[in-house]
Amino acid sequence: MMEERLILLKKMLLESDYLVILKGIGVSMECGCTSYRRSKYAYEIEEKYGRSPEEIFSAGFYNTRVREFFEFYKNDLISSLGEINDGLKTLKKLEDMGVLKMIITRDIFSLAHRAGCKNVIELHGSVYHNECPHCRRKYPLEYIRDSKGVPRCENCGTTIRPQIVLAGEMVNNALSTKAADEVSKADTLLLLGCDMSSVLAESFLRYFTGKRVILIHNREHYADSKADLVIHGKSMDILAQLAL
Ligand SMILES: [Zn+2]
């Protein structure tokens, strides 16, 4: 049964003219990135800081308690950036083959970029992009990680802002528009590591007018049957098994 679905998946992917992927939280978790959705993690953070990770990872908290924010950020967020695995490398192959046109994701750890993919819309930004809001000087992740306390701009002393979307902030409008446009151009849409109830699907599925929706996720959901092909399992393992 699984074997048949893998063959069908490969066929659908390779037949598509314009494949767009909505890459969800499932991928990030499989790659070992920090995630609030792991209850054990959320509990540890609450124990350590007396606040939930959602509370700390917000614009309000950043603006009022920047020192604590960066303590959390450095010790408990960018401490697990995730590993680039064979599943992610399959995405790079699909892009090189001209099949995969765009990956749309809320991942802030740049997994797809790090796997070599070029066409990625990172709706929530990336921890690899950091900028001084005053003089616009850019800084690498290492600068933030290795700074003592709050990271400050070498030019002007202003607190450097990681270019990521915090809770309570809007996604860049141009990026959302571009993502919607890409979905509207797709003939095949792959929901990878997310399902029909995910924020990504809810935001962009409505723009899809193509032929096929494929869903690969490790959890079953009642709306799964809306997809043309559903494979339940670890998305990265499944992609790696395609052996492209
Ligand atoms: Zn500056």
From TrEMBL:
Zn(2+) binds at residues 132, 135, 153, 156. It holds the Pfam family SIR2. The active site is at 124 (proton acceptor). InterPro entries: DHS-like_NAD/FAD-binding_dom, NAD-dep_sirtuin_deacylases, Sirtuin, Sirtuin_cat_small_dom_sf, Ssirtuin_cat_dom. Its EC number is 2.3.1.286. Signal peptide: none annotated. Residues 1-244 form the Deacetylase sirtuin-type domain. Keywords: Metal-binding, NAD, Transferase, Zinc. One of its GO terms (molecular function) is metal ion binding. Gene3D superfamilies: SIR2/SIRT2 'Small Domain, TPP-binding domain. This is protein acetyllysine N-acetyltransferase. It comes from Blautia hydrogenotrophica (strain DSM 10507 / JCM 14656 / S5a33).
